[in-house]
Amino acid sequence: MSSGKDHSEKNKNTSTIKTIGVLTSGGDSPGMNAAIRAVVRTALARNLKVTGIRRGYQGMIEGDFLPMKSSDVSGIIQQGGTILKTARCKEFQTTEGRAKAYQQLIKAGIDAVVVIGGEGSFTGALIFSEEYHYPLIGIPGTIDNDIFGTDYTIGYDTALNTVVEAIDKIKDTASSHGRIFFVEVMGREAGLLAINSGIACGAEVIMIPESDDDRQQLDRFMQKGYKNKETSGIVVVAEGDEVGGALKVAEKVREQYPEIEVRVSILGHMQRGGSPTAKDRVSATLMGVAAIQALLDNKQGVMVGLDDEQIVHVPFRNAVKYKHPVDQNLLEAQKLMNI
Ligand code: F6P
Predict the structure, then answer these.
(1) Ligand 1 atom 12: the closest Cα is on which residue?
(2) pLDDT in tens, 37-47
(3) What backbone phi and psi angles, to 5 degrees, belong to 313?
(4) Distances (CA, A) of 210 to 185, 219, 252, 320, 328
């Protein structure tokens, strides 16, 4: 437990940073608001001024800034989405776009920025911080949980529970009608959401980009497991699986087994919405606090993350270069559950 002395020491702001900006970028994820709240309140507690940057890097380029006080983040911890709005900004990928953004930050007197987003956002942050030697700190926010260096990204837990709830419902229909459902779960390049939701729902097959034998698993299930029309099945397909999405996989199965009733359900953007779980709210709060502390400790060009429940600082370069691996135990467990 921290002592009163530690707390007052921490409250002293001896860094040259006086005003920080905060933005959300890329796909929204539940818990981003909790992270904004933590960043704003921690910064104010450390005698920093806070400027909200609306619509991610697009707002940075356009100077879409708003001063933020503690009451601006009241009552948002339980809200999905992001009060600062978000965008996928092509202009920030250009030298000219980043130059405009830098000018806007200097003009507004913003000394450092906290970027809440995913891999694409951190790639932009890496280039910008190297070009301008400008202090940027990242907080991982994406439902995909695909960022290297952190066990966990904000929004993942909520999305996982949303997917589980949806598949449980689909399972009722699958078993009542004796159908096979191909359920597509988000994750452009990563299968963590798919493998974990699939295991949690007792899916018969899970197809993810990180596994190379999921096509064989599907064949095995179709040939051996699915013998008569009384048997139903759930095949979870990650959006980014190399076979293509659920529609493609289902199409192939339909061609091969025309007698079997097959349906496709693409869960889509409902996975990104909703009130964040307690885990997402708490992790977002811890990471928001850590992001401000990192800036005050003169760290820059790093993402804060959680490794074994402990705060870590991961250089943007590593966060975007490497992949978040899928635990082999998960793949093994999935196979054992479907012998
Ligand atoms: O990165 C989060 C994510 O939801 C991916 O899983 C998905 O592929 C992508 O965003 C969809 O992005 P958009 O909402 O821009 O279509």
Answers:
(1) 27
(2) 999 999 999 99
(3) -120, 120
(4) 14, 18, 21, 17, 10
* Residue given tokens 């990563």 in the structure block: 190
Residue 282 and residue 157 in contact, taking contact as beta carbons nearer than 8 Å: no
Q: Which CATH class is domain 4-155+276-321?
A: alpha beta
143 lines ligand 1 (CB under 6 A): yes
Does 3.40.50.460 match the CATH number of domain 157-272? yes
Each residue of 141-195: pLDDT tens digit? 999 999 999 999 999 999 999 999 999 999 999 999 989 999 999 999 999 999 9
Residue 236, helix vs strand vs coil = strand
Q: Dump pLDDT digits (tens) for 246-285.
A: 999 999 999 998 888 899 999 999 999 999 999 999 999 9
- How many Å apart are CA 294 and CA 309, to the nearest integer? 17
**What is Dmax (Cα atoms) for the chain?**
73
Give the residue extent of every domain in the chain: 4-155+276-321, 157-272
Per the annotation, the verdict on 241 as an active-site residue is no
Specify whether the CB–CB gap between 297 and 308 falls below 8 A: no
Q: Distance between CA 230 and CA 215 in Å, rounded?
A: 23
Quick check: CB of 239 below 6 Å from ligand 1? yes
Which tokens sit at 325? 């691996």
Contacts of 82 (CB under 8 A, 6+ apart): 24, 28, 32, 33, 36, 116
For the entire predicted model, the pTM comes to 0.94
- Tell me, using a 6 A CB cutoff, whether residue 27 lines ligand 1: yes
